[in-house]
Task: structure prediction
Amino acid sequence: MTFRSQLKKLMFEKNINQKKLSELTGTSRPSISYYLSGGAAPRDDYACKIAEALGVQVEYFDVSKTGSAEKPHLKNIGISEAAKRLGKSINFVKKALEQGTAPFGFAACFGDKWSYHISPKKFKKYVGERGD
Result:
């Protein structure tokens, strides 16, 4: 498992959101979001802070940093394409991502701007499950 997937799993189990983890660790919310998006694993000192805040040993995140960023082999999916393929409005997809109810992606707020991510792999699986 990657750092990202381990962190997401643990945050879910502990019912801790990005804001709370940021407060507990002193790590910025954009950094937490970056780790959750699979951009990279944190430096060792930040990984220790995160592990401590979540009540686990740092070994819980036993992943190599060189292979930590998940790089999907599928083409990225934009909001408008996802909305079209789902038969929904762009605003509907954005709200689902913002509220965390879309099983195929997430959104992160930076100040007054939102950044959206749709996992091509999860989206393909979701659309396939729906039979579209």
Remarks:
- Confidence is low (pLDDT under 50) at residues 64-74.
- The helical segments are 3-14, 18-25, 29-37, 44-53, 79-86, 90-99, 120-130.
- Strands lie at 105-110, 113-118.
- DSSP finds seven helices and two strands in the chain.
